[in-house]
Amino acid sequence: MRTALAILAVLAAVSVAGCGGGSGKSSTKSTSTSGGSGSGATIAVTSDFKPGAVISRVHTCDGRDVSPPLHVAGLPSTTKELVVVMRDPDAPGGNFIHWVIANLQPASGTLSLPAGATPSGAVLGRNSFGSLGYRGPCPPSGAPHHYVITVYALGQSSGLGKGFSADDVSALPVLGQGTLTGLYGRR
Questions:
Q1: What are phi and psi of 149, to 5 degrees?
Q2: What's the half-sphere exposure (Cβ side, CA atoms, 13 Å) at 26?
Q3: What's the pLDDT tens digit per position in 56-115?
Q4: CA 28 and chain centroid, separation
Q5: Residue ranges with strand state E in the chain
Q6: Helix, strand or coil for residue 173?
Q7: Do β-strands 41-46 and 176-184 pair in parallel, antiparallel, or remain unpaired?
Q8: Most exposed among 8, 56, 126, 176, judged by the fewest C-beta atoms under 10 Å?
């Protein structure tokens, strides 16, 4: 029972910390060593919306449906590739995938990806709409949905090919990861 209470306390603290305000670009940091091959690097992921704030309409089906800009910093020096996955865990079927892109090459421990950009050499995965690459938030009317963008740092090539799935990403050993969560709802 004590262990369960301790876990709940940690989760509550993390949740409260993630809801903080601030000004300027958003940033959420997360540490992970999934796959057991990493140093647990803390990676910062920023965009044009703050953590927990509304995603700009331009990035949704109600706007131009272009991917948000991403800036990733604090990558381990041994990072060879980045993979991005954007999920909507609030979708009626759960974990609806909006964006999967791999083979992103960092430069000097960072990555800057402009809005709507697909860099040369990037590999697009299949989203839950059945298309490749990015398709923005387009929830049914009602409460806003959470959109979780996760950036994975890999110490080796993923080997992912065109049309890969988010499930393929979950099997990769990572050096670290960072997340950024935004909201979007429709009336």
A1: -100, 120
A2: 26
A3: 999 999 999 999 999 999 999 999 999 999 999 999 988 999 999 999 999 988 999 999
A4: 10
A5: 28-31, 41-46, 70-73, 81-88, 96-104, 111-113, 123-124, 145-154, 176-184
A6: coil
A7: parallel
A8: 8
d(CA 182, CA 137) in angstroms, rounded, equals 10
The pair of structure tokens assigned to 148 is 């979780």
- Domains of the chain, residue spans: 23-184
Residue 99's φ and ψ, nearest 5 degrees, are: -155, 130
The residues, any chain, with a CB within 8 Å of residue 140's CB and separated by 6 or more, are 92, 186
Topology of 23-184 in CATH? Answer: Phosphatidylethanolamine-binding Protein (3.90.280)
Q: What pLDDT is attached to residue 42? A: 78
What span, in angstroms and rounded, lies between the C-alpha atoms of 127 and 29? 24
Structure tokens at 164: 């890969």
Q: Are 123 and 85 in contact (CB under 8 A)?
A: no
Q: Are 152 and 172 in contact, with CB atoms under 8 Å apart?
A: yes
User: Residue 23: what are its φ and ψ, rounded to 5°?
Assistant: -125, 165
